[in-house]
Amino acid sequence: MDQKLLGFLLVSFFFFSFNSPYSHAAKNNYLRQPPRKLVLTPHQGSKSNPQQVHVSLAGKDHMRISWVTEDKHVESKVEYGEQPGNYNAVVTGESTKYEYFFYTSGKIHYVKIGPLEPATTYYYRCGGQGPEFSFKTPPATFPIEFAVVGDLGQTEWTASTLAHVGSKDYDVFLLPGDLSYADAQQPLWDSFGRLVEPYASSRPWMVTEGNHETEIFPIIYPHGFKAYNARWQMPYRESGSTSNLYYSFDVAGIHILMLGSYTNFDKKSAQYGWLVEDLANVDREKTPWVVVLLHAPWYNTNSAHKGEGESMRKAMEKLLYKARVDLVFAGHVHAYERFTRIYDNKADQCGPVYITIGDGGNREGLAMDFEEPDSPLSLYREPSFGHGRLRMLDETRAHWSWHRNNDTDAYVADEVWLHSLTTNPACWDATPSTKDEF
């Protein structure tokens, strides 16, 4: 069979197989809004104007700026400075493009700029033309605030969630997988990039992959993640990783690890070996908080995706426990759920707090069906669209809040004060280092 014809049939099958919403029956009294239609965002500028602009942290004191142009001749350079229209620095970077069946991407630009001052607004222009953008760098010390949104998509609910996120200031955006829900329909990657640009161009967005980023087709695209890796380059090299699917970074006094649920994670894998080394190098006196993000949750009392993170949990949970990781965020399940501190399926004062936040606004709808009776490990659960905010006040205290998306308002439905595990002496008595133990 002709390869292009085979590709067309596979794409068609994939689209129609995965374009239907969930149909979980509710077992509670909540009245949830149904999924809403896609928001398709066109490009309004010329072929040479930047679009899909987003920024990310890229090692100490640096940021990576990415954008797309339809014009292949635009130079990959960024001019920037601390005053509007006054650019006292210019950096030239690199570019790439990719093909996916009949689709050819625009020119995808990457430019790493810095060193930059903390808590400072910079104004920048991409490719020597087009509109001026600005971003604010995160602070070097506490307090610092993160917006956390999983399974974002590009629906009317997504737009509402992003508006709620943008209504209050924050420093860094964290996304534990499932970005565009393109599912092999490559133009949806472009539409997603344009939708999030007002937010992603002004604050660093740090993401990891979900199942909707895989886009694997046997024989033709057996390794997957072609669009994701080309469009959303994260600081994996800066953190010693060999894959864009897992990496880490430091901001203020927090060490954040973005793990890959959809690449190898067993003890013989490159990801496992990297994780051992990464955790062993964390100095908890300098970075008192350690936070992990991944896509498929290790703990879940919803019937949706039940047990899908279990093999990764069995492979890596002990590493996180020995390193005294404070928080683990996951997506995948389209609902919100907060657990107590857990290790090996039991409440444990030295384990991480697990939070599922896969409720950003995806087109598949909400996962309504939670198990009954409630698990004593699960402290709050609700199938609603929303977003979270994690505010680290200092080396010991943090405040977590989950904001239900009520469309015109964002209602704080769940909140809790957290303390770093560095404050609990019982968790550090005779605890071997991660590297020595494994």
TrEMBL record:
Catalysed reaction equations from the record: a phosphate monoester + H2O = an alcohol + phosphate
PANTHER family associated with the record: ACID PHOSPHATASE RELATED (PTHR22953), PURPLE ACID PHOSPHATASE 22 (PTHR22953:SF7)
Name of the molecule in the record: Purple acid phosphatase
Segment forming the signal sequence: 1-25
Coiled-coil parts of chain: none
Stored InterPro entries: Calcineurin-like_PHP, Metallo-depent_PP-like, MPP_PAP, PAPs-like, PAPs_C, PAPs_N, Purple_acid_Pase-like_N
SUPFAM superfamilies linked to this entry: Metallo-dependent phosphatases (SSF56300), Purple acid phosphatase, N-terminal domain (SSF49363)
EC code: 3.1.3.2
Annotated Calcineurin-like phosphoesterase domain residues: 146-336
Domain Purple acid phosphatase C-terminal: start-end pairs: 351-414
Entry keywords, A to Z: Glycoprotein, Hydrolase, Iron, Signal, Zinc
Molecular function per GO: acid phosphatase activity; metal ion binding
Domain Purple acid phosphatase N-terminal: 50-137
Family affiliation: Belongs to the metallophosphoesterase superfamily. Purple acid phosphatase family.
Swiss-Prot/TrEMBL cofactor(s): Fe cation; Zn(2+)
Domain of life the protein comes from: Eukaryota
